[in-house]
Amino acid sequence: MYTQGLDSLGKECVDRSAGDSGPLAQRFQERVDADEKIEPRDWMPDAYRQTLIRQISQHAHSEIVGMLPEGNWISRAPTLRRKAVLIAKVQDEGGHGMYLYSAAETLGISRDQMQEQLLAGTAKYSSIFNYPTLTWADMGAIGWLVDGAAILNQIPICRCSYGPYARAMVRICKEESFHQRQGFEIMLTLARGTPSQREMAQDALDRWWWPSLMMFGPGDAQSRHTAQSMRWKIKRFTNDELRQKFVDVTVPQARFLGLTVPDPHLAWDEAQQHYRFGAIDWSEFQAVLQGNGPCNRERLQMRRAAHEEGAWVREAATAHARKQAVRQGEAA
Ligand code: BYC
Q1: Residue 189 CB partners (closer than 8 Å, separation 6+)
Q2: What is the 3-state secondary structure (H, E, C) of 257-292?
Q3: E strand or H helix at 29
Q4: From atom 36 of ligand 1, which residue's Cα is the shortest distance away?
Q5: How far does residue 215's CA lie from ligand 1's centre (Å)?
Q6: Which atom of ligand 1 is least distant from the CA of 93?
Q7: Residue (of 23, 13, 2) closest to 48 by Cα position
Q8: Cα(24)–Cα(237) distance, rounded to whole angstroms?
Q9: Taking residues 156-164, what's their average pLDDT?
Q10: Which atom of ligand 1 is nearest to 153's Cα?
Q11: Confidence band (pLDDT; 50, 70, 90) for 332?
Q12: Residue 119 above 90 pLDDT?
């Protein structure tokens, strides 16, 4: 739908030679500064378009790859209720991916192109989904920590300057809130359970804590996109600001669960009204981004297999659409 709209855009909207400076660019920045939404048919600097395509497609891929670690546990969920909830959650992630691919398509990239980039291994997706889910407690830790981090990162995107991305995020954030609560509830049940259940919950926190902090991206001094993305109001907070918010809200939750955050340097700073925390191992983050995390290869293999096995569904849907079009043509 959106790409069809794009075909009819005025030439100045997609003409890269229009440049990223001059009166159009100035007017664009004034609109952003006035908190007006930029819509697909509006003029935008090419670099703004490319930044959004990069971020939104990475975000969409993260949702789709994010289905895999949890999908692994659907058949092993401990009760029917847990199974039904987990199926619904994984399905929600698939839906989020679809809204986000649609938002990216409004910028002139096709879903097929994005799929190709993901399957070829040239696209990024969140580092967090390259870690294994070893026990049932990991379903709790993902909901509590990973979805919790996602919410903090994504609520400000509801105010992103680009309309389709901002609007997609509203529904996504509502659903992520349910996900976070179901994860916390799993952790609470385990933390109040038998000693071995409690141990399982602590082990999951130990393994997911640091990767969750890495989700927010490199430190501000290393983040190459933040300054420009904040000027364009694509990002409203820096990576370090959001990471700090996450630590501040999550540490008391861990205390409530009776679990220990695996950071000996964690301490409340009364003067700053923030938790101070230990150094993040950025070499691990870089290794994961370069494709050398514990599960990078497995995740991509799974996506490629799903794509190949789903070929018949795409063919059947195309044949059905063709048949419908012929029938509608005959009826007209
Ligand atoms: N993993 O200059 P920076 C979810 C890359 S889905 C991998 O700070 P930016 C969920 C970054 O892309 C979670 N790569 O970049 C789903 C850039 O690479 P390129 C995903 C990362 O864009 C299912 C380079 O490092 N959420 O929550 O200003 C179940 C330099 O970074 C990561 C989103 O995508 C990372 N963690 O800021 C449960 C939200 N961090 O392209 C949960 C939208 C950084 O230059 N995205 N990189 O080669 C964003 O908010 C921003 O894109 C980021 C990065 C904060 C992630």
Answers
A1: 140, 197
A2: HCCCCCCCCCEEECCCCEEECCCCCHHHHHHHHHHH
A3: helix 23-33
A4: 215
A5: 7
A6: 23
A7: 13
A8: 26
A9: 98
A10: 50
A11: confident
A12: yes
Contact 215, 146 (CB under 8 A): yes
SS (H, E, C) 86-143: HHHHHHHHHHHHHHHHHHHHCCCCCHHHHHHHHHHCCCCCCHHHHCCCCCCHHHHHHH
138-159 tens-digit pLDDT:
999 999 999 999 999 999 999 9
**In this structure, are residues 92 and 52 in contact, taking their beta carbons and an 8 Å threshold?**
no
Task: Indicate the burial class of 80 (C-beta count within 10 angstroms; 0-12, 13-18, 19 or more).
Answer: exposed
Q: From CA 132, how far away is CA 320, in angstroms rounded?
A: 39
Whole-number Å distance, alpha carbon 325 to ligand 1 midpoint, is 40
Q: How far is the CA of 263 from the centre of ligand 1 (A)?
A: 24
Average pLDDT over residues 275-295: 97
pLDDT > 80? residue 195: yes
What's the confidence (pLDDT) of residue 21?
Answer: 75
What's the one-letter identity of residue 20?
D
Q: Tell me the two tokens of residue 202.
A: 């602590």
Measured from CB, residues less than 6 Å from any atom of ligand 1 are: 54-55, 58-59, 62-63, 66, 93, 124, 126-127, 146-147, 150, 153-154, 214-218, 223-226, 229, 235, 239, 289
| Distance, CA of 139 to CA of 121 (rounded, Å) | 26
Rounded to whole angstroms, the Cα distance separating 9 from 3 reads: 10
Residue 96's CB is within 10 A of a number of other CB atoms, namely 26
pLDDT at 9 over 90: no
- Largest alpha-carbon pair distance within the chain? 75
Q: Where are the beta strands (DSSP E) in 176-305?
A: 267-269, 274-276
pTM more than 0.90: yes
